[in-house]
Fold this protein.
Amino acid sequence: PNNLIVVGGVSRDNDDSRFFVARLQDNGSLDANFGGGDGMVVTDINELTDVVNNIVVQANGKIIAGGLGVDGGSEFGMLARYNSSGSLDTSFDGDGIRATPTHAVSTNAQFFERGIRGLALQASGNILLIEDKDGTPVLRRLTANGSTFDLIRTDLFNSELSDMKLDANGKIML
């Protein structure tokens, strides 16, 4: 909305990595109306590693960031929804954060290949996501408030699948 640019990734502090989201004006300057006035938000979700792989912006300006969280010996698909101000949206799964266990920590794949690998928004407000589940991509649907997952497809055999789009009729293109 309003020609704003939203980017995400990781913010590092020593050995801890955190979700990082920034909002920029269309001229590339940080948006002072986002975050603590500096245009950036850093969210510490897990003990060890949090990495944003994908971002979608809803029509109301809320931002959904999807990625990977690592805590101890487990990996999680992580979603965080932010209000247009940059604060966590507590109407999303109660605290603004939704985690789904994926599998034991893998050292064989890059962070962008694990966790939530693709996001799209349906006209109903539901969230579609491609998630790595034990090394295999699966397509899931999450309700708009983050409360319920539906498993749509588990037979997505292409382990390189990392994104999706919806066509004008709402059909999913992988």
User: Anything to note?
Assistant: The two ends are 25 Å apart (CA to CA). The chain has no helices and 13 strands.
